UniProtKB/TrEMBL annotation, chain A:
Name by which UniProt lists this protein: ABC transporter permease
PANTHER family reported for this sequence: ABC TRANSPORTER PERMEASE PROTEIN YPHD-RELATED-RELATED, BRANCHED-CHAIN AMINO ACID TRANSPORT SYSTEM, PERMEASE PROTEIN
Keywords assigned by UniProt, alphabetized: Cell membrane, Membrane, Transmembrane, Transmembrane helix
Superkingdom per UniProt: Bacteria
Recorded topology in the membrane: Multi-pass membrane protein
CDD domains, sorted: TM_PBP1_branched-chain-AA_like (cd06574)
InterPro entries linked: ABC_transp_permease (IPR001851)
Cellular location(s): Cell membrane
Gene source species: Levilactobacillus lanxiensis
Pfam families, per database record: BPD_transp_2
Membrane spanning residue stretches: 12-31, 57-78, 85-104, 129-151, 181-199, 211-228, 237-259, 265-285
Main location: membrane
TrEMBL record, chain B:
Primary location: membrane
Record localization: Cell membrane
Protein name: ABC transporter ATP-binding protein
Entry superkingdom: Bacteria
Pfam families registered for this protein in UniProt: ABC_tran
Coiled coil stretches, renumbered: none
SMART domains: AAA
Species, as recorded: Levilactobacillus lanxiensis
InterPro entries: AAA+_ATPase (IPR003593), ABC_transporter-like_ATP-bd (IPR003439), ABC_transporter-like_CS (IPR017871), ABC_transporter_ATP-bind (IPR050166), P-loop_NTPase (IPR027417)
Membrane topology: Peripheral membrane protein
UniProt keyword list: ATP-binding, Cell membrane, Membrane, Nucleotide-binding, Transport
MF annotations from Gene Ontology: ATP binding
ABC transporter domain boundaries: 6-253
Keyword Iron: no
Length: 299, 256
């Protein structure tokens, strides 16, 4: 039981990453590698700020701002510098590694004995693991609501159109460069925000905690889509959170099967690859089609 | 009394600048477009028709010369800025609409062409009745598909939608780049009739590239021919009405 609660709590906290990546991966339609750097960047920022006595909530919001700045740099390299988005993301991700070490001063900083978002009177009074469920739900409701509202504004529609058809967007006077920069900023801000949450939940920040983040975030998006099928844009955003929780249960299952935590990146990559290849499998193993063909030849 | 709306003066546009492959596409091109002109643009491949549109639209920057809108030089304004007065329909139906957005959402995007887009709710529901009325005039079933993603429409429906989007907010200049060429003859003709109707009704100033000599003769009050980056033929009014396809063919035979 407590394992299931823990999985739900973790899924909710990590869902922030899924929603952040959704903005670039699904709406702007490109893979942004910056997130592998901005996740630990957010963690490092929040932990360093808290260690220096900043209020945990302010520290978490600061992580958003710093993450958005990293996204701004990727955006400028991509739109104004004409560096391909994949490389622009990798450049900023690599640079973040050094920045993170600078911020933290060493590879791993603990929050032992320091205040965090999880250490308040109300959350501490809940049964074990329920603190992340409550806080995670609250945060996901707020973030999802804001993103859904934004996507229905005139600006949000211009943002969607940019990812959908750039030529058309430009011909209607939408500044597509600005839209991409804005998307990268908000996306990386959310990823860094998620990093700050996870670091406070774990009680430490580690410079290597960004490895495989894009796979985890993509997994929540893809699993949500595979599990819930045809949805509207707003429903798909909610499905990301549910996908993130489902993904945690899959990991739980894998650990139960006897794999160690060290295998998780391999397993995550395999799960994501399988989910992304589902449409291909459906085509190859189209039994309905095979049966129909078998009947037709009998005519 | 007509006045010049858009003037192109000695416009030179080169591609592959400063390389051995440098080609001059527009070569000191001069063209004066009056308000209310419906100009059909003819020319062989490579004559510079699409480049002319891209120069007016701002997709390609010109090397020298002036592009004046109501007397003001706009040659260095961005593509986005120029959309305040300019609307375009592309040849490829896929280029004019956002495939994952619905028909109504596309129309709403077009209604805000060239305007600042803010953080207020888009208010799509207020517009639905209006969009229904508009799409009914297309007579191609678009009105029943307002909430369908445009990626699921036929090419003809998509192109009709692109045209509707371009004219929804009245543009000062409308550029049609062979907008019926990718459609089957019947659908293409339907859209052509509709185009003519809308352009004359709303008194739009319009340039239309076409490879159909018949269309070029039938529609519009003025016809120009581009050749080697220059306007080599420019006929309007009664002179254009007197023009026949035989005369045009012999003219083309001469310049080739």
């Amino acid at each position: 039981m407590s394992l299931a609660v823990s999985a739900i709590g973790q899924g909710l906290l990590w869902a922030v990453l899924g929603v952040g990546l959704f903005l670039t991966f699904r709406i702007l339609d490109f893979a942004d590698m910056t997130v592998e750097g901005t996740f630990p960047l957010g963690a490092a920022t929040a932990v360093a700020a808290i260690a220096n006595g900043m209020n945990p909530l302010l520290a978490t919001l600061l992580a958003f701002v710093i993450g958005a700045l990293a996204g701004l740099i990727t955006g400028l390299l991509y739109t104004k510098g004409h560096i391909p988005i994949l490389l622009a993301g990798i450049l900023v991700m690599t640079a973040c590694y050094s920045v993170n070490l600078r911020i933290m001063g060493r590879a791993n900083v603990s929050l032992l004995g320091k205040a965090t978002l999880f250490k308040n009177h109300f959350l501490a009074s809940l049964p074990q693991y329920f603190d992340s469920v409550v806080l995670g739900t609250l945060i996901m409701v707020i973030i999802t609501t804001i993103v859904i509202y934004f996507l229905q504004t005139d600006l949000g529609q211009g943002f969607i159109a940019t990812g959908d058809n750039q030529t058309m967007a430009r011909s209607l006077g939408i500044n597509t460069d600005n839209m991409k920069i804005m998307g990268l900023m908000v996306s990386n801000g959310l990823i860094a925000f998620g990093g700050a949450l996870v670091a406070q939940n774990n009680g430490y920040a580690d410079v290597n905690m960004g490895i495989g983040i894009i796979v985890i975030a993509l997994a929540s998006i893809i699993i949500g889509e595979v599990a819930f099928g045809d949805l509207t844009l707003n429903q798909r955003l909610v499905a990301v959170t549910l996908g993130s929780i489902l993904y945690r249960f899959v990991l739980l299952l894998v650990l139960k099967l006897g794999f160690s935590a060290n295998d998780l990146n391999l397993i995550s990559a395999i799960i994501l690859a399988l989910c992304m290849m589902l449409p291909v499998f459906n085509n190859v193993l189209n039994f309905k089609h095979l049966v129909k063909r078998g009947l037709d030849t009998n005519d | 009394m007509t006045k010049p709306l858009l003037e192109l003066k000695d416009v030179v546009l080169k591609v592959n600048r400063n390389t051995p492959e440098e080609i001059t596409i527009l070569n000191k091109l001069n063209l004066t477009i009056n308000a209310g002109d419906f100009i059909t643009v003819l020319g062989s491949n490579g004559a510079g028709k699409s480049t002319l549109f891209n120069a007016i639209g701002g997709d390609l920057s010109i090397d020298s010369g002036q592009i004046l809108l109501n007397g003001k030089d706009i040659a260095h304004e961005s593509v986005e800025k120029r959309t305040r007065f300019l609307a375009r329909v592309f040849q490829d139906p896929k280029l004019g609409t956002a495939p994952r957005m619905t028909v109504a959402e596309n129309l709403l995007l077009a209604e805000r062409r060239g305007q600042r887009r803010g953080l207020l709710p888009r208010g799509l529901n207020h517009h639905m009745a209006h969009y229904k009325e508009l799409t009914v005039t297309m007579h191609n079933g678009l009105d029943d598909r307002l909430t369908t993603a445009t990626g699921n429409l036929s090419g003809g429906q998509r192109q009709a939608l692109s045209f509707l989007m371009a004219t929804l907010k009245r543009p000062e200049i409308l550029l049609l780049d062979e907008h019926t060429a990718a459609l089957d003859p019947r659908t293409g003709q339907d859209l052509m009739h509709l185009t003519n109707e809308r352009v004359s009704q709303d008194k739009l100033t319009c340039l239309m590239i076409t490879h159909h000599m018949e269309d070029a003769l039938t529609y519009g009050n003025r016809l120009i021919v581009l050749h080697h980056g220059k306007v080599t033929y420019d006929v309007a009014g009664a002179d254009k009405q007197a023009l026949t396809s035989e005369k045009l063919y012999s003219f083309f035979a001469e310049i080739e």
